[in-house]
Design brief:
310 residues, alpha/beta, Spore Coat Polysaccharide Biosynthesis Protein SpsA, Chain A, nine-stranded mixed sheet, two-stranded antiparallel sheet, globular
């Protein structure tokens, strides 16, 4: 474990799972360290087993821009299908033990807006019963976006692992009971047995599918908050569940990623699977000024499609 200071217990936590995309992690950290409030937070990096050694070089490059951080190397998961899930879920447990109140989970290919943290804090203050808040577009149903930075809505069944904020009480009381060997060893059987009424297909049992089932069972008692104006976007045009690779040294790869991920047309050109395009359209990272939030009804043009998406 590496830490910039020992003040983690007095801070909220940013959890960053990472693996083999140091060029994306570089851009992720470049945006995170520009976000309002980062100086008040403790960052936990979780490089998964077999990670690219350049991950640690990128972390070292940004160390001076982080008030407090640590690198936690997980024990190797013996189950291939749930290896990535074990890294994320184990990270949630560690972050919940470290945090003051909230855990922000930002994977290495998520780019956050400057008011990312401020938006999450504001919506949790407005809606103390939340299961979590999410900052990207809702990729599980079609919802009209808005340029008004104050507006948000509540929904259910729409969890995804893209720019999440969740309280330590939700992690400890609702998610942690399912982080067990039984789940990691046989995730399909576990989900079918523990969530027999779920609408989610049994092909979706990784960590986000498990957490989605937990929230689905709670329904409107523990809703999810989304902004009408997204505060983050998914930039991973290659990587987990996506084909392709980058060549060249790290500096060249960082440059190439930077030329692509902030440009909508270039993102469309490099994404091989059309169904992933909606997940990866960049959003403005500078948000107009706002002081308070305003809850609007959910404006949807389709039923949730979460049951068919990973």
């Amino acid at each position: 474990m590496t830490a910039a200071d020992d003040g983690a217990a007095a801070r909220d936590v940013v959890l960053i799972p990472c693996w083999r995309r140091p060029e994306f992690l570089w851009h992720c950290l470049d945006n995170l360290t520009r976000a309002e409030g980062i100086e008040q937070l403790h960052v936990i990096f979780r490089p998964d087993h077999g990670h690219d050694p350049l991950i640690q070089e990128v972390i070292a490059e940004f160390a001076a821009r982080l008030a407090s951080y640590e690198i936690d190397l997980p024990v190797r998961c013996p189950y291939r299908r749930t290896k990535q899930s074990a890294n994320v879920l184990g990270g949630y447990l560690l972050a919940a033990a470290r945090t003051r109140q909230l855990v922000f989970m930002v994977e290495e290919d998520i780019m956050v807006a400057r008011d990312f943290f401020r938006w999450h804090y504001a919506v949790h203050a407005e809606e103390p019963q939340l299961f979590c808040s999410l900052s990207t577009r809702n990729h599980n149903r079609v919802v009209a976006t808005s340029d008004d930075p104050r507006c948000y809505y509540l929904t259910t069944l729409d969890y995804c692992s893209l720019g999440v904020a969740v309280s330590r009480t939700v992690i400890g009381g609702l998610i942690a009971p399912h982080i067990c060997r039984e789940y990691f060893e046989r995730p399909v059987e576990y989900c079918l047995r523990r969530f027999p009424s779920s609408r989610i297909g049994d092909g979706f049992v990784e960590q986000d599918g498990l957490i989605r089932r937990v929230q689905e069972a709670l329904g409107e008692r523990r809703p999810i908050a989304y902004p009408y104006r997204p505060r983050a976007f998914h930039a991973g045009f290659i990587g987990y569940h996506r084909s392709g690779r980058l060549t060249g040294d790290l500096a060249q790869r960082i440059h190439r990623v930077g030329r692509v991920i902030y440009n909508s047309e270039r993102m469309r050109q490099v994404i091989e699977n059309p169904e992933h395009i909606a997940d990866s359209v960049p959003v403005p990272l500078e948000t107009p000024s706002w002081q308070s939030l305003w809850r609007r009804s959910l404006e949807q043009s389709s039923d949730p499609i979460a049951v068919t998406r990973a």
